[in-house]
Amino acid sequence: MIETPTRERIEGRRIAEGTFYDFKREVDLNKKHPGGGKSAKERFIDDVVAFLNGAGGHLIIGVNESDGVWESYVPMGGDREKTCNKFLQVIQSNILPLPTKIDVVPIDVPGGFVLDVRIQPQWRKPFQNAMSGAFYVRGGPRNRVLTVPEIREYFADVEKMETDLSRLFEGFRRDLFSTDHLNSIGRISLGPLGGLSHREDDDSGARLLLGVLPRQHYDRFRPCYEASKSSQRGIAAFNGGWYPRLKGCAGGFEALATRERLFVATDWHILGWVKHPFDFSRERPDISSFEENLRRYLRSLEEFLKEVHVVGPYAITFAIDGLDEIDGWSRPGMSSEIGDSRPSIVENLADLQVLGDFVTQVRSALYY
């Protein structure tokens, strides 16, 4: 078990340099190398990248070590919060992709404080020093450069999640379109003029599709998902209210509401659809409400997953079909579908960037 550094553990030499710990006497983020070599900031980023590509760990700044254990402190002074935020901002601005699950925490010592850069294990690898383009990994008390095959293997893990979710999502779409009772799951009946106006029957004609594939999908030692053995917290439905209890079906469990369906597979992937995702009460599609509903829906779904110990990262994808059936609001020449491109890898289902990009696509497809 990796112990969290404290003053007592450091001074008691229970924390020693190795795979999970590294001591730095000081890190002056503004210091340049006199001979034109790496700056202190670039070397610091190398160290953080190495832990990110390894098993995580602690980079402790302000400790003078001897033979890998504490000898004395080189304490910092000033505003603790500003110092922590400065280091965190440097990390977030100089590493690709943007790392998550990193905290910079001060530890009080005589004369001031030292910093504990806490780097939790990451799944979305490899991470790269954006200043130099270098890839490092922590191995024992030293960093080493990742080999080209290792870098490719890291990228392959992410690509596999994207590819597998795309395959599952496409099969889900095919099943929907081939269902005998297709009209009951989100496609309005076509009239003699080729479509029904939402003004006539309050039917938008559009349908939101969702796919989620968590990393636990690949965990061979994780038991299959069984709704009857779960705590079964409520899952907020997209259009308000709550889904009914998940019930068994082929390959997993599903919850059906009037205009929605959510499917949770026994191997942990999730698929769902929502009929009528837009509110036309103002005589136009309310995109702001759509975004709020989708964010709330995803957050509720994520809380449900956390209760059964399924956490990020996730591969996630969205699509909306039937846009051409939204009479008076779909743009001429626009495709009847948006989204459904390569899935995104996210730590949190309601990722603001991914969600924002999708909503932007929605806006561009409709008169608003």
TrEMBL record:
Residues 17-145 form the Schlafen AlbA-2 domain. It holds the Pfam family SLFN_AlbA_2. This is Schlafen AlbA-2 domain-containing protein.
